[in-house]
Amino acid sequence: MKENIIKTSKDYQQLIGNITTVYTDGRLKAIQAVNATLLKSYWQIGQHIIEFEQGGAERAKYGAQLLSVLSKDLSLLHGKGFSLSNLKLMRQLYVCYSKSQTVSDQLGWSHYVELLKLDDELERSFYEKQSIRERWSVRELKRQISSSLFLRLATVKDKEQILHLAKQGQTVTHPLDIIRDPYILDFLKIPEPNHYSESELEKRIIEHLQHFLLELGKGFAFVGRQYRITLDNTHHYVDLVFYHRILKCFVLIDLKKERAGYEDIGQMNMYLGYFEHEENTEGDAPPIGIILAKQKDDLLIKYAMHNISSQLFVSKYQLYLPDKEELRAVIEEQLNSNQ
User: Fold this and answer.
1) Which of 303, 297, 301 is nearest to 313 (CA)?
2) Which residues cross the membrane (predicted)?
3) Pair 238, 269: CB distance under 8 Å
C-alpha cells in the first residue's frame, strides 16, 4: 500500500526524472570521455609511426613491412586492437588530422573509420561536421556516404557555397536548404525496371519511414499520410505531410511515379494556400511543397511555376544509388571555375 502511495506521488516521479537525467547525462559524458581518450591515443600512435618512418634512410627501408611487423609485436604484447588494418587507420588519422584538436570527441572511433575511407578532404569534412550536427550513428553515416549526400548537395552550389558546405555542414535557415535533387530512395527495394503505383510508393515510404526521414534531413517530424483537404464538398488528399521543427512550417509532399506535370504544380499550390490559411497557427511560417517525381522537364517546370509560390519545389527521386563520378565531375568544374 505504502509502495503504491510512493510511486504515485508527484514528488517521487520528479525524483525519478531527476535521477534519470543525471544518470543519462553521466553516461553520455563518460562515453565522450572514453571516445576522447581513445581517439587521442590512436592519433598519438599514428604520430609515433609517422615520425619513426621519417627518421632517415635507415628506417625508410622498412617500408610496408614496418606496420606488419609492428602489428604482430603489439598484438603479442597487448592483444586485440593492433591489427594491421587498425594500425593503417591510426597512421591515416594522424595524416588526415595533423592537429589532434581537429579530431572531435563527439564522434567515436567507428565514425572515423568510415570517414578515413574518404580520399576527398571536402567530403570527409562535410560528413564529419554533419555527423556531429545531426548526431548520426555509424550506420546513418554509412548510409549518407553511400547515397552521396555531399555530392548531391554540392552539385547545385557555386564554388564558395561548396567550400562553406564542406567546412560547416548543411545549415538550415531557408526553405531551399532542405531541398535535395535527386532524393535517393534505394532503401525502398523497388527493382528496376519496375511497375508500381503511387499508392505502393507511398506505402513503402511509410514502411521505411525512418530511412525516409534520414534522407529528408534534420528537423522533419511526420504528421500524416493521405491528409484530407475538403473544398466545396470535394475531398483532396496530400500524400505525405511533415512539420519542420527548425523552419517551423508544414512540408507537403506529393508523389508522382512518372513525370511531374503542370497540373501537379497547380494542385500543390492549392494545397499550400489551404495549409497557410486553414492549418497554420500563430508562429508557423508559410508551408513548403515538394513534388517528388521520377522525371521532370525543367523548362516545363520553369514556365508552369511562373508567379507561383517560391515555397514550391519539384525534385526527382531515384530508386538506385547515384553515379558518384558524374557528380564529382560537376563539382570539380565548379571548384575550378573563376581560377
Assistant:
1) 301
2) none
3) no
Query: d(Cα 230, Cα 237) in Å, to the nearest integer?
Result: 9
Q: Which of 171, 166, 162 is nearest to 122 (CA)?
A: 166
Mark whether 128 and 223 lie in a shared domain: no
Would you say residue 289 lies in a domain? yes
The answer to whether position 336 is within a domain reads yes
Structurally, how many domains does the chain consist of? 3
Residues 282-301 as b/e (b if ≥16 CB within 10 A, e otherwise) read eeeebbbbbbbbbebeeeeb
3 state DSSP class of 290? strand
Are both 211 and 247 inside the same structural domain? yes
Could you list the pLDDT tens digit for every one of the 339 residues in the chain?
555 666 566 677 788 888 888 988 898 788 878 888 889 999 999 999 998 888 755 565 666 688 899 999 999 998 888 999 999 999 999 999 987 677 888 899 999 999 999 999 999 999 999 999 998 999 999 999 999 999 999 888 888 888 889 988 888 999 999 999 899 999 998 876 767 889 999 999 999 999 999 999 999 999 999 999 998 889 999 999 999 999 999 999 999 998 999 999 999 999 999 999 999 999 999 999 999 999 999 899 999 988 887 899 999 999 998 888 888 888 888 788 755
Residues 216 and 303 in one domain: yes
Do 162 and 46 belong to one domain?
no
- DSSP state for residue 155 in the 8-state scheme: T
38 and 156 in a single domain? The answer is: no
Residue 111 within any structural domain of the chain = no
**Are 218 and 278 found together in one domain?**
yes
Residues 196 and 262 in one domain: yes
Cell representation of residue 303: 514556365
E strand or H helix at 256: strand 249-259
**Residue range(s) defining the domain that contains residue 291:** 183-321
